[in-house]
Each structure stands twice: as C-alpha cells, then as structure tokens.
Amino acid sequence: MLVVSLMRLGDEENRLKETFPEVDFEFYKHPSELPKTTQEKMDVLITYHAEVDEAFIEAASNLKWIAWYATGVNALPLQKIKEAGISLTNAKGVHAQQLTEFLYAFILDDYKELKEVYNEQKEKVYNSKRTTQSIEDQVIMFLGTGVIPQRAAEIAKAFNMKTIGLNTTGHKVENFDRTYSLDERQSVYKEADIVVNILPETKDTHYLLTKTDFEHMNDHTLFVNIGRGTIVEEAILVEVLKNKLIRKAYLDVFEQEPLDSDSKLYQLDNVYLTSHIAGNGETNKKKSTDIFINNFKNFLNKNELIENVVDLDKGY
Fold it and tell me: Which of UniProt's keywords are assigned here (predicted)?
C-alpha cells in the first residue's frame, strides 16, 4: 500500500509512519515534484492542490482514494473522479473553530467600531463619549447550516443573539432558532441584521445571490462572506455597496482569487477585505490527519471510509 502526500505535513509525517508501520508513505512539497512512476503506483493521495486535474487523475491509474486536506472540493474534477471509481474525503469541520473566530472578529470589529477608535488613536483623540451597539439580540442569518455554521450559531447563542439558518430543505438544526429553505431566503432577509455566507461552491450555489437578494435585505445589514466568493458576482457586490443597499461587508473570499489589484472593491469605504485567510489555522494539518487516520484504519481493515465522504454528485 502506497500513500503519497503532495504536501509536507511536519510532525504528522512521523505520526502516520508510526501509526501504520506496514504502509509506505512518500511526502512531496508540490505535485511538480511527484515522479511519474510514483503517480502510477500510488493507492492513496493526500493533497489540496488544484493541479490534481483530469490529466492527473488519468495518470494515477492505481488510485483508490483522495484525502482532500481542505473543505471545498470544487477545484477537483469530480466527474472524472467518479468515473475512475475513486473515493473522495475532505476536511469538513477542521476549519470550524478558526472560521468562527474570524467571523466574530469581523462582527465585533464592526459593532464596537474598532477601526474608528483606532483612527482616533492615530489622531491622538481621547473620546470617552463613544457608545457602541451590542450584538445581544441581534439576528444573525447563516446561508448554510453545516458543521461550520453550527459552531458559529453555538457561539452566537453565547452572545444571546438570535439565529436563523438557511439550508436546502429548511430542516431544523441545533442552535438555530428558525430554519428556512434557501429558496425562501428573499422573504426572510428582513428578519436579519447580519447575513453570513458559509455555503460550499456547487452548481446550485454558483452566483446564487443576485442584486435582488441584496435589495431584499435591510439597509443596515452587515454581510460577511467566509464561504465561497462565487456566491455572487464581484460587480454586483460593488454596486450594492456603492449604492448602500446594505451598510457594510467583510469579505474573505472573492469571485476571482487572488483579488486583482485593480478591483473596485479596494475603492469602497464600506467593505473590509482579507485574503482568504479565515480558514488558515496552525492545527489544520493535525486535525485533517486525525480524520485521515480514522478513515485509513477502516480503509485497511474493511475497505471503506467512514468520515467526511464526499458525495461526488452533490459536490460536498
């Protein structure tokens, strides 16, 4: 059994070798370093590189399982993987804590006016009269009710916020006061003060949000996107923010990445941008390897995977 990783895993490399001494592991920094003969022989692949395309899959004739060390699998040729009979798992849940921390950093930065306070600091202004809004009783709406939104909704309840979740069917989910289907979203936007996108990228979510969606939101809405940038066209976001259809946005993901230096988003004063870093965490590799080990034990003993198996038709 040959397991190939197209990323260096640090201490996790020794943990894998010690846990599975009978298995051959090879670790490479990048797909470009992978020998052709190894690509043809490998049984299992650990990666998160977009270079794993259709041609790569065709050349990996013995491949049985891809352990994707990220959550979104939209960069992969899912149909080709399905045709080749290859199983796919992802790192769903690994980023939940990190993304949740960033989400509330964004929200509190806004509600506590920390950028305005910092500007006063730079101007040597001592303003003890400033009074800021609390997030208590604010209604936060999540587009998506998966592992990450569930963790974020749990924290929202600790702040005494009210939570709404939107998913494919409107089914109930723990820590959400109310749930609706995504098809109902435009009729319930007015109930929310904060709208957060944490949906994966699929054929159904690609450009899901239109200008009409934002027109149905409150003009005081704070929009946060830590899901996928392709949920909305950049031109629509620019128009919405420029015309103040919503109050402000915090964006960690974008329609095209990296964000072009000429993007009109940089010219707006009611949007704050981070460079798709909200999911980056120091323990991501360890947590992803925990999932891999759990799956690999079953893969070796029962030839089956039991955690974070991706539905190749749904794309998540």
Answer: NAD, Oxidoreductase
Amino acid 117: pLDDT: 98
Low-confidence ranges of the chain (pLDDT < 50): none
Provide the token pair at 97.
Answer: 């804590």
Q: Dihedral sign, CA of 88, 89, 95, 99?
A: positive
- Whether 143 and 197 have beta carbons less than 8 Å apart is answered as yes
In what order do the strands lie in the sheet containing 87-89? 24-27, 2-5, 44-47, 65-68, 87-89
DSSP letter string, 160-180 = T-EEEEEESS----TT-SEEE
Burial class (CB in 10 A: 0-12, 13-18, 19+), 11: exposed
CB 224 within 8 A of CB 273: no
Put simply, whether the predicted model's pTM sits higher than 0.70 gets the answer yes
User: What values do phi and psi take at 224, rounded to 5?
Assistant: -125, 130
Cis peptide before 258 (omega within 30 of 0): yes
- Beta bridge pairs of residue 225: 197, 251
